Amino acid sequence: MTALSDASWLYPLKGLVYFTSHPFLYPLLRARLIPAALLSIFVFTTLFVWTYLPQVAFLALFHGRDLAWINGAFLVLGEGAAVTALLFEAFFVDETLVDVFDATLINEGYRDLVATSRTLGPAACDPVKELGKPTTSAVYSPFSLRQIIEFIILLPLNFIPVAGTPMFLIMTGYRAGPLHHWRYFKLLGFTKKERNNYVSGRKLQYTWFGTVALVLQLIPVLSMLFLLTTATGSALWVARLEEKRRRISDDTGSGPHYDDNPP
To answer: How far are the Cα atoms of 62, 82, 142 from residue 164, in angstroms, in the given order?
Structure first.
C-alpha cells in the first residue's frame, strides 16, 4: 500500500487535492486565473473551430471514421496545450510556479532547502507570505525549444490507429517529467552530470509523472489550474524524496547524498 501511495504518477493528482485543501495557495492562482482562463478559452475555441474537422477528415483516412473523432480531439488538445504553454510563459507563469513549489516545500517542513535560493521572512502560518526575493536564478521548468520541437515532431503519432495517442502521451511525458524537478535540482546545487545521473535512475517514475501531468494539461480552460497543482504535486514528491535522502544521510553520517537508484 505504501508503494502504491508513493507511485510517481499519483503526485500530479495529490497536488490537485493538496492545492484545493490549502487556501494559502489560492492567491497564487487568483493572480493569473482570469487572463489565463480567457487565453485558454480563446486558443482552444479557435483551434476546434478552424482545425478540428479538417484533422478528423485526414485522420479518417488512417483510423476509420469513429476513431478519427477521438484521436482528432486529442490531436487538437495537444496542439492547444503547446500553444497555451508558450503563451503562459508570456504571462510570467513560471514565477508563480516557483512560488507554489517553494511554499509547498516550506509547508512540508523543508524551509531550509528553499532558503538556499531565496530570502525568507519570519516563519508564519501562511508560507506564501514568507517568500522573499530569490537570491539566485529561480526557474521552475526552463523553456526548452528542443521540447517544443519534439512535441511537434511527435504529434503525427496520433495518426497511428489505437496505439498512437497513448504513445504520444507517454513519449512526451518521458521528455517532460524531469523538467518538473528542475527547481529541486537547482536547490540541491546539482551539476549537469549529477542531475543526469539522478534522472537516469528514475526514468520510469519521471515518465509516468510527466504523462499524467500532460494529460491534465490537455483539459481545456483548466490548463492554468493544473499547471499550479502539478507544481504542488512535484513539491510533494520532492518532500518525500528529501525525507528519504536525509534519512540516508543521517544513517551514514555523511553530507548531502543522492542515490542513482530510486528509493
So the answer is: 11, 18, 28
> Would the pLDDT of 99 be above 60?
yes
> 225-250: per-residue pLDDT in tens?
888 899 999 999 999 999 988 888 77
Cell numbers given for 207: 515518465
| Cα angle 249, 253, 256; round to 5 | 40
Q: Which DSSP letter does residue 201 get?
A: T
Nearest Cα to Cα of residue 91 among 187, 232, 227:
227
Question: Under DSSP, is residue 118 helix (H, G, I), strand (E, B) or coil?
Answer: strand
**Alpha-carbon torsion, ordered 54, 55, 61, 67, to 10 deg:** -120
Q: What does pTM read for this prediction?
A: 0.80
Distance, CA of 53 to CA of 43 (rounded, Å): 16
Integer Cα distance of 60 and 49 in angstroms: 18
Instruction: Report how far residue 178's alpha carbon sits from residue 173's, in angstroms, rounded to the nearest whole number.
Output: 9
- Whether the per-residue pLDDT at 21 is higher than 80: the answer is yes
Residue reference for cell 519534439 = 150
Distance CA 74, CA 220 (A): 11
What is the distance between the alpha carbons of residues 81 and 239, in angstroms, rounded to a whole number? 28
CA distance 165 to 62: 13
Helices assigned H by DSSP within the chain: 2-5, 11-21, 26-50, 52-63, 65-90, 93-107, 111-114, 127-130, 145-154, 164-176, 182-188, 192-200, 203-217, 223-252
d(CA 146, CA 262): 27
Can you read off the three cell numbers belonging to residue 166? 497513448
The letter for the amino acid at 219 is I
Residue 66's H or E segment, with its range, is: helix 65-90
